[in-house]
Amino acid sequence: MKKIIIREEFCLGCRLCEVHCATAHSESKNIIKTFKSVQGRPLSALVFEEQGYTTFALQCRHCKDAPCIESCLTSAMYKDKHGTVLHDSEKCVGCWMCIMACPFGVIKPDLKEKKVGSKCDFCTGREKPACVEHCPNQAILLKEI
Amino acid sequence: MRHVIIGYSVAAISAIKSIREIDKTSEITVLTNESSVYSRPLISYFLAGKVKKDKLSFIPETFEKEMKITVKWNTAVVKINPAAKTVITSKKEKLKYDRLLISTGGTPIKPPIAGYADDIAGIFTFVKLDEVEKLIKYIEKNKIKECVILGAGLIGMKAAEGLLARKIKLRIVEMADRLLANTFDSAASLLLEEKLKESGSEFLKETTIKKIISKSKKLEALELSSGKTLKTGLLIMAVGVRPDIELAKGTELKVNRGLVVNKNMETNIPGIYAAGDAAEGKDFLSGENAVIAIWPVAARQGSVAGFNMAGKKAEYDGMFPMNSVTILGVPSISFGLTNPKAGAYQVLLSNEGGKYKKIVLKDGIIVGVVLVNAIERAGIFGLLIKQKLDVSALKKQLLFDDFGFLVLPKDFRKHFVTGEGTEV
Q1: Helices marked H in A54-95 — which ranges?
Q2: pTM for the full predicted model
Q3: Are strands B2-6 and B27-31 parallel, antiparallel or unpaired?
Q4: A145 belongs to a structural domain
Q5: CA of B59: which chain A residue's CA is closest?
Q6: φ, ψ of residue B366 in degrees (nearest 5)
Q7: Overall domain count for chain A
Q8: What share of chain B in percent tops pLDDT 90?
Q9: Nearest CB to B295 within list A50, A64, A71
């Protein structure tokens, strides 16, 4: 299985991962339309951490025994056959058990819609996750585990 | 190998998945006194009308076929005979087992109140689906506009949430001096109490119901310890649940509050396992056995029990209480010890703009957290409790709005982010 590896020493703090993640998960898949739409800026599915000059992106680790799946009351959180942890918005009731359970804090709640707002889906369908593809300094890498 | 499982909720389902990971062929029979699988915490959403009945299940329709299990619905177990390794059902069937899992869950506590009888119309508990279905019918038939809830714990507040969505006016009677007294600390309770009042509900604290007054088997009024009488057509008894351990009676099964299990989730009788709200497993924080009646504990315990039942050694390393509750639109998450007695504990607090954060430390290690209106990234706190990370040097950062992995020591975070096999 492939895994996203984070190398914070190489992170420039450019946040291109965030921009391209949001674009990849937008309807238009167009960077300008995504960021200049009337709905405002979309949520990216990764968490960008920044303090002073230390920065890195963190996305769902797609845990083997995922605590978010174990805690989900509706089975909205599930694993596909490739081991990717995915979220079915239809089933989600916004109980926030996954927010409580995720040890990495990488599931974002949409408190208004009362549903998980965004969560890394490993860019299912794309050859490479958008954050990996667009990182200019290989701070985010895809590695076969 | 014949597996028999009593109860069919999250602990049972996790156990079945574990057994089938190891053993594809053994016979698995599930005995349940209910008529469907449903996610119990969703009953408040069901009452509110936010989730329909056919969406209450948390397993696929094909689960029984895929897992090759036999489910006997509406079939309670009335007796376990450990010597003969058999169980007897309410339908007078005798089933033989090699491995038995007791995952009977919890049963609502009905406090002894003068004037109470099971057949008085208008009194309900709020734990199981059949009861909630009856409640909904009763509300609709009698056009209920107001209600009294006895108990302001998690069950009472979840019921409140569902009833408020139906525009029912609430009066909540609670023995303690605040709501969610076991889950929250005073400040967090107060935040929610204010919200409750805004909804037009009344909160009667330090009060109990002395007497239930009924006429022709229909609820009429409640006499309170304060001397006041409340006229009402609906009472929800939400004083709590206790482990459903009736089956242990007349056996050698070791019982404390729940069925006492070892780290393999096995009871004192070899071959008999217990998991979920009926079981008393290890409490991570105290190291002692305790009943922690929450979904993730039931899931984990069930899974561990299942592996051991199938012959693969697995250990339950203990969990701690954690709750995620949204009440009156206010989301909150809590972990561990939220309301420590004075002594060896240090408390970090922030309360700004309606966002409340409290972190309880003991010897520099987090043992409890309360987050109200500030739930983002909450799970990291759970990780810190579990890993017993010394956070003495990061006290300020823990309360930051942008608290995250970055404030944690580099070695620690790198280990968790890039380390292999480190996922919990």
Answers
A1: 67-71
A2: 0.94
A3: parallel
A4: no
A5: A75
A6: -70, 130
A7: 2
A8: 92
A9: A71
